[in-house]
Amino acid sequence: MKVSALTPALLGLVASVQAASSIEYSTVSGYFLQDETATDPSTFDYTAVNFGLINRTYPADQKLKHNGKDLTQWERFYNQVQELNKKAGKDVEYKVLFLGRHGEGYHNAAESFYGTPAWNCYWAELDGNSTATWSDAALTPNGVNQALIAHDFWQKEIKEQRIHTPDNYYVSPLTRTLQTANYTFTGLQLPHGSAPFKPVIKELLRESISIHTCDHRHSKTYIKDLFPSWRIEDGFAENDQLWNGVTEETSAAQDIRSTTVLGEIFFSSSGKDDTFVSVTSHSGEIGSILDVVGHRTFSLNTGAVIPVLVKAEKVETNARAVVTSATWTVNPHCTVPPVTSVSACVCPSSAAPVTTPLVTGF
Questions:
Q1: How far, in Å, CA of 82 to CA of 187, rounded?
Q2: Which of 85, 33, 38, 37 is nearest to 56 (CA)?
Q3: Sign of the Cα pseudo-torsion (168, 173, 176, 178, in order)
Q4: How far, in whole angstroms, is CA 80 from its chain's centroid?
Q5: Where does this protein have coiled-coil stretches (predicted)?
Q6: How many C-beta atoms surround the C-beta of residue 254 within 10 A?
């Protein structure tokens, strides 16, 4: 795709995503280790600490038989969230978001191989190399294993903790997240009466949209062929309307996008009864969601999952004060493999940086 092929309408779509202007989000802390500043994200292992759920009593325990002593921590926590929703007004809703990062993709492995500086300014703009393809990257064998670890841990929690499994499942449209959700949730022995694993694929849950080809999704037809029984949200375009290989969204633009998709998850037709929500996404998008809901920065390793209790409240908002768009940026990159150092990328003197795509993509 040439720069001249980008129409004003497409550039407007890239630069602006409408925000859910009347909902404010906040993290309800005190329930998970990941909420606490003392917890180190780099060493956090969700499988070793019950998804991070803190062993404690809840105010809602008092309404349970024997104060809930016969129930597991997750059963009592679920009851606590239900009580929060019962006591909340019609304009307030509590949900637990299980934020899962995809397993290792071929783009992750390539970045480790080339080093981040060289990856960002040259290799990431290609479809792949002679041994691997990373445009809309698939999972590596290690990434598949990470998703299977999540599968086994969910099954363990179902058996031992009698955890309430997700009422709704949402997935990014990129291949690595689709595969991760499939390996994680397909085949689980769900408790009787649980919502089945029938995920909804949502465009706005995708990774931070950069000029990297790993952020360029396949067509709707391709996705439908991969998982024909999964639901693709209404309005999902056949071809990627956001990635162009020239401009990339800023953090401000991504936070607007995340606010929008949260507005589609909260106050939905399912109402307050659907309190546990699975979101299979990406490191950058999960970081943006955490920022929007007021959670502290918490980086996830590939394949990791953290739950967060979120309060959403409808508020009266002056429409003029709501930011609904943010400028995207152009990112120059090398046309041949760069000369790199540990902390920077330098294009060879014979190859000036360009702002046009190096590949055409799908």
A1: 27
A2: 33
A3: positive
A4: 26
A5: none
A6: 25
Three-state SS across the chain? CCHHHCCHHHHHHHHECCCCCCEEEEECCCCEHHHCCCCCCCCCCCCCCHHHECCCCCHHHHHCHHHHCCCCHHHHHHHHHHHHHHHCCCCEEEEEEEEEECCCEHHHHHHHHHCHHHHHHCHHHCCECCCCECCCCCECHHHHHHHHHHHHHHHHHHHHCCCCCCCEEEECCCHHHHHHHHHHHCCCCCCCCCCCCCCEECHHHCCCCCCCHHHCCCCHHHHHHHCCCCEECCCCCCCCCCCCCCEECCHHHHHHHHHHHHHHHCCCCCHHHCCEEEEEECHHHHHHHHHHCCCCCCCCCCCCEEEEEEEEEECCCCHHHCCCECCCEECCECCCCCEECCCCEECCCCCCCECCCCCCCC
pTM for this model (two decimals): 0.91
Angle at 289 between CA 285 and CA 291, to 5 degrees: 115
Residue 324 CA to residue 16 CA, distance in Å, equals 7
Catalytic residues: 102, 207
* Residues 117, 338 contacting (CB under 8 angstroms): yes
Rg (CA), the chain: 21
Which has the closest alpha carbon to 121: 210, 209, 15, 11? 210
Q: Which tens digits make up the pLDDT trace of 275-312?
A: 999 999 999 999 999 999 999 999 999 999 999 999 99
Domains of the chain (ranges plus CATH)?
3-346 (3.40.50.1240)
Q: Which whole-number Å values give the CA distances from 49 to 23, 69, 305, in the listed order?
A: 32, 20, 12
pLDDT, tens digit, for every residue of 91-118? 999 999 999 999 999 999 999 999 999 9
Residue bearing tokens 């990431």: 124
d(C-alpha 241, C-alpha 359), whole Å? 16
